[in-house]
């Protein structure tokens, strides 16, 4: 390989980059990159705003593989097995069930989904912890022992299917509320505490031979203090964090991939310079870089500004991932992707994670013959979808329900008790259906959280699909509270209703319970 080809081996590009440079045939002739990102959701557009299709569909992936001069290392955040019908996309169930068989099977289902699409490497799992309830990620715990025990099994399940797993987001999200997609984040722990928590969990992942770690656009000021004018280097740009801490002190021997290099937390105005700095800092794989950065890296290697040993280190670590994957493919060392297995395991895992956080008044189980009319208050970001699923499921039990998103219409800046009393007098039960990652001030739906506190506790149930940290923060006094810890779908809403009526048990544990059993 030429020097430029060796450098391009570290580049993981999107279909947008390919289509912006002539399409698969022309792109790979000119830019023999090492990898591609596969996505089944969202969309990219070209430089002139033209629609460029989904991030990468299966046929386009195969076309790219055809024209690539070398075997591509294909990565993805997620994929679905052909004929898979159940979508339950949240890992919070694992934190509530603490079931290590579930954790392994979660990883196995991920591996099956990757293999069905010919994907070599998954950008997960996220092993972050939640020490700040305002954080945007829904971490399964703030207990490093729970994180370690659960995610070691997830990684083992993924890699037993011959798919490379990625532990992320180093140096750890969860101590600071800023979303690094939008702006630089921060890990605010001192180093002793960091080593007891994040450091410990990463070293546990390495015991399972996790093939990859993703760094992210987050500082760790306790370790890298070389800031200027009050700013500190994010892990993406920090040699101390990526090379000295991750590869050195923690002893990680696999490949390091950056988080997406287009994120707001990374951007300082020169995406090419940012990509070069990430490579200098110790990143072995560059996720969504501008292709022009390869030329700059080449120039700096030739000038000696970047030592050749930096590129050799990256290539050696990438080769470990390739060898792991190739060995699995050559030996057929994984299970045949099975949609029925994926469907059944996802529902089983979701069911094990459902938690009855509070039933202090004995309101549950419900009895259909005592419910003439139910009000479902839609406190969601999805415009009634999950609330209407709940309404339909109640109807199957002969229970009539209304769904309202605007109980204080027109929405004002105040929720009045007299209005609440007028609304609730016509209903035997009021279910607040909560499905949101954040609570946004004054949004129409989230105003209902304010209003919820005025409803009669003896006929009120809170059902939460959103952040498990809502319970103590926004509903501290509510005596009847169900924590679903999963995504609302036709299947999981049915499980909810079965639990509300006592046909099945809520066996999950609160995210706040520290015992790991």
Describe this structure in words.
The chain is α/β, with parallel strands linked by helices. It has three domains: 12-70, no CATH class; 74-80 and 89-332, TIM Barrel; 355-500, Rossmann fold (3-Layer(aba) Sandwich), CATH 3.40.50.2300. The chain is 38% helix and 14% strand. It has 18 helices and 18 strands. It has a six-stranded mixed beta sheet with strand order 13-18-17-16-14-15. Helix 14 (385-395) links the parallel strand 14 and strand 15. Helix 7 packs parallel to helix 8 and helix 14 crosses helix 18. The radius of gyration is 25 Å and the shape is elongated. The mean pLDDT is 91.
Query: Which term fits the overall shape?
Result: elongated
| Domain module tally | 3
What's the name of the CATH homologous superfamily of the largest domain?
A: Glycoside hydrolase, family 3, N-terminal domain
Please name the CATH architecture of the largest domain.
Alpha-Beta Barrel
Weakly predicted, low-confidence segments: none
How would a textbook summarize the main sheet? 6 strands, mixed
What is the CATH T-level topology of the largest domain?
TIM Barrel
CATH secondary-structure class of the largest domain:
Alpha Beta
What average pLDDT do the residues reach? Answer: 91
């Amino acid at each position: 390989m030429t020097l430029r080809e060796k450098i391009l081996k570290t580049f993981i590009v999107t279909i947008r980059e390919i289509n912006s440079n002539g399409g698969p045939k022309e792109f790979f002739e000119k830019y023999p990159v090492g990898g591609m990102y596969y996505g089944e959701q969202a969309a990219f557009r070209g430089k002139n705003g033209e629609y460029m299709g989904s991030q990468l569909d299966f046929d386009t992936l195969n076309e790219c593989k055809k024209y690539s001069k070398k075997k591509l290392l294909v990565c993805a955040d997620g994929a679905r097995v052909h004929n898979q019908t159940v979508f339950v996309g949240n890992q919070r169930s694992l934190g509530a069930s603490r079931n290590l068989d579930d954790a392994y099977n979660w990883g196995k289902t991920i591996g099956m989904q990757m293999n069905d699409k010919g994907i070599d490497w998954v950008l997960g799992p996220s092993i972050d912890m939640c020490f700040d309830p305002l954080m945007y990620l829904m971490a399964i715990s703030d207990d490093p022992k729970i994180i370690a025990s659960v995610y070691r099994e997830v990684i083992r399940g993924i890699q037993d299917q011959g798919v490379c797993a990625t532990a992320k987001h180093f140096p750890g999200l969860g101590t600071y509320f800023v979303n690094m997609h939008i702006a630089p984040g921060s890990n605010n722990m001192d180093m002793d505490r960091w080593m007891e928590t994040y450091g410990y969990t990463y070293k546990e992942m390495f015991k399972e031979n996790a093939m990859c770690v993703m760094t992210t656009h987050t500082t760790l000021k306790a370790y890298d203090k070389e800031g200027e004018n009050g700013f500190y280097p994010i892990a993406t740009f920090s040699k101390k964090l990526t090379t000295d801490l991750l590869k050195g002190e923690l002893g990680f021997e696999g490949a390091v991939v950056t988080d997406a290099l287009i994120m707001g937390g990374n951007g300082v105005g020169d995406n090419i310079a940012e990509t070069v700095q990430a490579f200098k800092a110790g990143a072995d794989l560059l996720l969504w870089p501008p292709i022009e950065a390869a030329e700059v890296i080449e120039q700096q290697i030739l000038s000696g500004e970047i030592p050749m040993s930096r590129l050799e280190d990256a290539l050696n670590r990438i080769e470990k991932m390739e060898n792991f994957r190739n060995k699995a493919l050559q030996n057929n060392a994984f299970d045949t992707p099975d949609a029925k297995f994926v469907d059944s395991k996802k529902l089983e895992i979701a069911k094990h994670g459902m938690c009855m956080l509070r039933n202090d008044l004995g309101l549950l189980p419900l009895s259909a013959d005592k419910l003439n009319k139910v009000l479902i208050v839609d406190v969601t970001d999805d415009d009634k979808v999950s609330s209407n699923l709940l309404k339909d499921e109640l109807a199957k039990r002969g229970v009539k329900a209304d769904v309202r998103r605007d109980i204080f219409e027109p929405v004002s800046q105040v929720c009045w008790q007299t209005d609440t009393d007028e609304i609730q007098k016509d209903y035997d039960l009021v279910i607040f259906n909560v499905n949101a990652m954040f609570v946004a001030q004054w949004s129409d739906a989230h105003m209902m959280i304010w209003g919820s506190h005025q409803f009669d506790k003896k006929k009120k149930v809170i059902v939460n699909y959103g952040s498990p940290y809502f319970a103590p923060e926004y509903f501290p006094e509510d005596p009847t509270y169900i924590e679903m810890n999963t995504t609302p779908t036709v299947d999981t809403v049915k499980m909810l209703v079965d639990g509300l009526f006592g046909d099945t048990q809520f066996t999950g544990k609160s995210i706040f319970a520290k015992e790991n059993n």
